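Minutes, project check-in
Item: structure for the 277-residue chain
Input as provided by the requester:
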Amino acid sequence: MREPLLIARNPDPASSLPYLVRIPLGDGIVLRTRETWPRTSKVYCHRHDEPWPADAEIVETVALRECSRRGAAIDVVADRTRDARSQFVMTRARGREMIFWQTARVAKAARPNVALPTARAGGLDSLEIVVDTRERYAWKFSHQQATTVKRALPVGDYASFVEADLVAVVERKSLADLAGSLTSGRLAYRLADLATAPSAAVVVEDRYSAVFKLDHVRPAVVAEMLGECQVRWPSVPILFLENRALAQEWTFRFLGSAVRERLMGEQAHRILPEQDG
């Protein structure tokens, strides 16, 4: 018989994550979590540094039909009809592990019902996008007409070049990474570096409204610091683009437009001296 998913109260009263969840894989994966189930939005989780408590105060026992690891995620299927499917997504952002728990319904709600275009960026026959070597789980741009190559970038995660000249760069952020880098002060240094590029932007794979649902930092602090950053570095917009697919699409168009603008400027520079003569 398959082990159930166990949800208990966190015995640490000082923790901001009041529940523990035990995922029945291997010897059991124990996480601290904000909610007992991700019913309306994805739930932030954190690894519990101690074993599952022997005297755990069980809040809910969820019978499972399936529990399996798929790459960087753990799929869980409860033995019930409503909100049966959920997933623990484990990623890393700047060396720090991030874990989110979401249901299929929450994940679907985060994906807008739009068909992304397949037209070339800036009318270019081809676009090469340089991906920083430190970028993990990098965008593939497989839906767009672009090729990617990995090499170390001086700043940012994705960039376009004309010959050896950097023309545009994009820094990619998850919401958790954005909040962490804002509160630690790292984003301020990164924005200062990005501002030295001809064109630069920060893209966030989430909605702005999600800032006010953060539960491991104060939402008001994050919102205030975002405003301050845009005033200090107005040339580097911070864009909330809903999800991975739309953030990738916007980046493709932005980098392609920067290449086209540079090429048109070079062409005009060559023509103008002839007209003056």
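Outcome recorded: The two ends are 87 Å apart (CA to CA).
No further action items on this chain.
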